[in-house]
Amino acid sequence: MTIKENDRAKRIVKFHEKKVGERANWDDHWYNTAFYVIPELDDVYEWQHKSKGEEKHYKLYDNSAEHNNELLSSALMSMAINPTSQWFELTTGDPQLDKVAGVRKYLQETVRIALNILNNTNFHPEAGGMFKGLNALGTGPLMMFEDDEFVVRFQALPVYMVYLGENNRGLVSTMSQEKKMTVYQAYAEYGKDKFPEDIQRKYDKDLDKDIIIVHLLMERKEAELRGFVEPRKGRKRKKNVGVNKDLVSLHVLKDKPVFLKEAGFDEFPGAVPRWSKTPGEVYGRGPGMKALPEIRMVNQMRKVTIRGAQKIVDPPLLAPDDGIMGRVNTRPGGITTYRAGTNDRVESLNTNANVPVGLDLVEDSRGEIRKYFFIDQLQLREGPQMTATEVNERIDQSLRLLGPMLTRLEFELLQPIVARLIRIMKDNDLLPPDPPEELDGINPRARFSSQIAKAQRAIEAQSIERFLGSVAPIVELDPSTMDHLNIPSYLQVMADSYSVPQEIFNDPAKVKKMQEQRAAQAEDERRRQVEMEDAEKVSKVAPAIKAEG
Fold it and tell me: At what angle are helices 123-137 and 24-37 packed, to 10 degrees?
């Protein structure tokens, strides 16, 4: 049965408005948090009509929360997706297959190309904005689209600009968004003929009029059940064909529901990480939201402390009600006249304001806010002089403490980004040529080798090193003990722990050839030594034989 386009449009707008209503409490929470933590995103209610260049800090008395949020965002950027390091690897999921030299080299070359693509796009600038929103508001949508020039491009969206839904696996699979554009832009984007004649007559009077387009992203199977799209017939269409894909992209005019466009993607075009999530909720909660009571308190205390300091520097005055002629002049060098013969004077009022106590309370609250943003774990504490080894060990310990908190980020942010990038590279013939036969039918997945991931995996390497240190005295007593150790496997395990590139290892065939050459040289040396010993014996026995003869 064919679904009428007007019916589809009405259903989509109704679904979107339901999502808007479900999010009302979150809007209040986001506004209050953004006001203190990320003021540039405090236009939760006015983002469709905000004034550009508006002052954002005029009501703040303390910006330590904003500063700590920026520090945490910078730390996450450098530790998780550092552009100067290889922050992810590819694995087949089979440890034995990963050890095959050809497979390992091919996967590492694929990673090198992928990182080069990311480093030449707007990935890191947009990811920086995403992290600030994620830390403050708990959810950080980062969209990822194909691009003719740069292969991919990214766009970080404030969470209040989108409305989210999850699938049965707890992953964000639905996103609706209201896009404001002028009538002229809508005509250019969708075609004027997509709009009914009565709407055209209304819109043609003012091409600069702003209209709202509802854009919905949803898994096709759900969209079919809800009657948003026609059931798919047959298989998926080939790449670069918009419709009939696993994820549908639908555009509808909101004012008077009109269906404008249907497109699609092979997978969700981006990622929506949540810092932490309460069961039953779709949107996440970040450090900024958790620290909000303390942040409000420090702003209020800062305000009171400033008022107390003002009263000390510029105290209120006591003046008699009838002894002063005219008004009290408080300007420097100002003159205040009073009646002659009276002892009344203008005096300052001592309020006994204790500013140091207020500053101490403010600093205590700032310390608590730093803990919410993990700044105490990210920065080395002052202490006695340490060796480089001790410094590195302390850094690794701090990173491992942050590891569990970043597990969700790897699953909801980095995995989807890498998987979509590899798929786009494959569609555009950007993968290395001549893949090994062992990779036929296998879709490699990402394994992360960021600074935090390396710190976590370093535990295994440290355990091996401690083990070798403990058996060293035994090896000195009995060198044959080393026969029980597989040295090549040890080298590979240590290389994996520290994410060492495969290029530093020789090809196994070359290693075998080198070992055979050394064995041949050793055999030649042994043969020469035997020949020399035999010749020496003959030289000693020959004179005796000659004398007997």
Answer: 110
Clarify whether residues 225 and 304 are in a common domain.
Answer: no
Q: What is the pLDDT of residues 496-540, one digit of tens each?
A: 666 666 667 777 777 778 888 888 888 888 888 877 877 777 676
pLDDT tens profile 185-216: 999 999 999 999 999 999 999 999 999 999 99
Q: Please check whether residues 65 and 88 belong to one and the same domain.
A: yes
Give the domain extent around 366: 292-372
User: Which residue intervals of 314-410 are DSSP H helices?
Assistant: 355-372, 375-378, 388-409
**Sequence letter at residue 308:** G
Nearest one of 328, 215, 334 to 263, comparing CA atoms: 215
For helices 64-80 and 388-409, give the axis angle rounded to 10 degrees.
100
The β-bridge relationship of strands 247-253 and 317-318 is unpaired
With 0-12 CB in 10 A as exposed, 13-18 as middle and 19+ as buried, what is 87? Answer: buried
Q: For 8-32, write each residue's pLDDT tens digit.
A: 999 999 999 999 999 989 999 999 9
* 212 contact partners, CB below 8 Å, separation of at least 6: 48, 178, 179, 180, 253, 254, 255
The last residue of one of the domains, among 290, 313, 334, is 290
As given in the structure block, the two tokens for residue 460 are 């295994």
**Shared domain check, 306 and 217:** no
Verify that 74 and 216 share a domain, yes or no. yes
Are 398 and 377 in contact by the 8 Å Cβ rule? The answer is yes
* Shared-domain flag, residues 323 and 264: no
